[in-house]
Amino acid sequence: MTNDKSPLSDALQSALTALHIQDAPLLVAVSGGADSVALLLGLCDLRESLRLQLTVAHFDHALRADSAEDAQWVSQLAAGLRVPCIIGRREAGDAPHPRPLSSEYRGEGGSEMMPEESARKLRYGFLRQTAKEQGCRYLAVAHTADDQTETVLHHILRGSGLKGLGGIPPQRELDADLTLIRPLLKLRRADLLSALAAWDQTFLTDPTNVELQYTRNRIRHDLLPKLRAEFNPKVDEALERLAIQASDQQAAIEQLARQLLQKAVIDVQPDSIRFNRNEFATMPVAVIREALSLAWQQQSWPRQGLGFQHLDHLASMLVNGTPTKLSLPHGVEAACRGNLLELRKSKRN
Amino acid sequence: MTNDKSPLSDALQSALTALHIQDAPLLVAVSGGADSVALLLGLCDLRESLRLQLTVAHFDHALRADSAEDAQWVSQLAAGLRVPCIIGRREAGDAPHPRPLSSEYRGEGGSEMMPEESARKLRYGFLRQTAKEQGCRYLAVAHTADDQTETVLHHILRGSGLKGLGGIPPQRELDADLTLIRPLLKLRRADLLSALAAWDQTFLTDPTNVELQYTRNRIRHDLLPKLRAEFNPKVDEALERLAIQASDQQAAIEQLARQLLQKAVIDVQPDSIRFNRNEFATMPVAVIREALSLAWQQQSWPRQGLGFQHLDHLASMLVNGTPTKLSLPHGVEAACRGNLLELRKSKRN
């Protein structure tokens, strides 16, 4: 391979600039697959111009007999690029794979076994700890525009609703000192493969990418090719646009909900909150529901069991003043008195 | 068949009540297929209790040699139910079938021929004229919850964006005197088939339902069964919920955009409009874009060519005051002066 600048590096530079990343210690998660190898090489191209201090992290899920060889391969790749490399490995005491999927993901089908969640948890635990130990401010992962498309389609089929349609965000704060970034999110997997071919760089074709098994694999290798061939050759762009619009509109509703709360909340106590009903009169019900959900969250009351119907009834109570009393989950009681609406949580719950 | 009340009639009664329909002259579009036959029988059950004056309309697309027999069958069905029946027929001078699909529907694939649009146009032309001649205030069509699901999925795949996700509305004003209603929109096709079986009522298995050919047929008979079997047995409900949320959120954005315009528009002339920029300061960009699109529409300026990017640049100009000038499609120029933003359309365009 050479270190010439490539179109990949240009796109990567734009992404890092948009994320305001420069002169920063950055941990790169590398499975050894095409996406993460392309990410690593692309970042190496930019390490001088953007003054990046790179460290590679690889997690060995130990699900295959030869997985240690993958770890070895990644170590050698990093050494060749003069980047420090930390290898983690699943220990005998860690949660076993595979285990039954959590109910959120199981859907109605029920019996499917998916190790994704526990594998992901272990790997991210290792990555966060390593970032902390190495003093890294950012953790870069190799999700692409194809991952984005697949996620949006997965969420549509699973029924995650409009919030799930927003897809994968380009960055997410993991804690006060560490931000997860996805600088390849606008790039297609095909472009990464071209870049790797131009660099004459090999990659592992079967890394321990357990997350892609089951549903995601079927979306990638069966459903999406069928949709492109039989329905719309540009279905990927269609899904990506939908995701952008959905997260844009969701952001608008959330911003308005926060503004509404600022005006409408009269008094906050740990076990109660009081609203001025007049402020809600001209607001669309979607914004009122979002504001009530946000207020509930700010009280740190348990969110589980509080459904769309509860929020909808509460919104209608705020606007119409009827009913005057409503019981909500976790012992929260809503009561209307004139222009006031009070939510109060009983101490027993 | 008998005229006993059925669960279908109960659901239909709820739908008509929600649409405030009672004591009204109502034209029922009947192809002779299961959905429209069930609609007609269900409405007949309610004609006394809701004082409905029913008339049947059937359009013979004359695409098959035996299509006149279908028309005859529908006439006899209506006669048996003591409902007047008007038959329309495509004439030699009408637009031929099939013709190339309009570019909006053609997508990138390009070559597919689809007669849907022209067939639909002819049929709706006949239905509207018949409603007028018969003095009908409502036109009832037999779209079901399955049509809704298929439409949402079709829009997702075609890339209609978030607005297209709203799906089929339960009613739509065709003109000042005629409203299209879809009282079966919450009912599954399987429920209609059960009701028909209970009534011992036959129906045509291959009516001239040209709209369901091509893409829609593949969605109904191939894609949706695959999604239910391999991804989520409740995918229909997931798509329906998504449609409800999307149209709910879209309605919120539109309501806020109208409120914003009321506050922010200072002066309107046929060829110009002026805004107070201060009103936009705390508004989310999604609401500002919608308000600008609405203002443009209220001026009756041509909408074609005005894209997301134009609206986005204009929104940013409103909020930031820069750039101070912007050229938009159809000779519209935007200019910022202090707290004012003016849109002016040159007379030449």
TrEMBL record, chains A, B:
<dbReference type="GO" id="GO:0032267">
    <property type="term" value="F:tRNA(Ile)-lysidine synthase activity"/>
</dbReference>
<dbReference type="InterPro" id="IPR011063">
    <property type="entry name" value="TilS/TtcA_N"/>
</dbReference>
<comment type="function">
    <text>Ligates lysine onto the cytidine present at position 34 of the AUA codon-specific tRNA(Ile) that contains the anticodon CAU, in an ATP-dependent manner. Cytidine is converted to lysidine, thus changing the amino acid specificity of the tRNA from methionine to isoleucine.</text>
</comment>
<feature type="binding site">
    <location>
        <begin position="31"/>
        <end position="36"/>
    </location>
    <ligand>
        <name>ATP</name>
    </ligand>
</feature>
<dbReference type="InterPro" id="IPR012094">
    <property type="entry name" value="tRNA_Ile_lys_synt"/>
</dbReference>
<feature type="domain" description="tRNA(Ile)-lysidine/2-thiocytidine synthase N-terminal">
    <location>
        <begin position="26"/>
        <end position="221"/>
    </location>
</feature>
<comment type="similarity">
    <text>Belongs to the tRNA(Ile)-lysidine synthase family.</text>
</comment>
<dbReference type="InterPro" id="IPR012795">
    <property type="entry name" value="tRNA_Ile_lys_synt_N"/>
</dbReference>
<keyword id="KW-0963">Cytoplasm</keyword>
<dbReference type="GO" id="GO:0006400">
    <property type="term" value="P:tRNA modification"/>
</dbReference>
<dbReference type="Pfam" id="PF01171">
    <property type="entry name" value="ATP_bind_3"/>
</dbReference>
<keyword id="KW-0436">Ligase</keyword>
<protein>
    <recommendedName>
        <fullName>tRNA(Ile)-lysidine synthase</fullName>
        <ecNumber>6.3.4.19</ecNumber>
    </recommendedName>
</protein>
<feature type="region of interest" description="Disordered">
    <location>
        <begin position="92"/>
        <end position="114"/>
    </location>
</feature>
<dbReference type="GO" id="GO:0005737">
    <property type="term" value="C:cytoplasm"/>
</dbReference>
<keyword id="KW-0547">Nucleotide-binding</keyword>
<dbReference type="GO" id="GO:0005524">
    <property type="term" value="F:ATP binding"/>
</dbReference>
<keyword id="KW-0067">ATP-binding</keyword>
<keyword id="KW-0819">tRNA processing</keyword>
<dbReference type="InterPro" id="IPR014729">
    <property type="entry name" value="Rossmann-like_a/b/a_fold"/>
</dbReference>
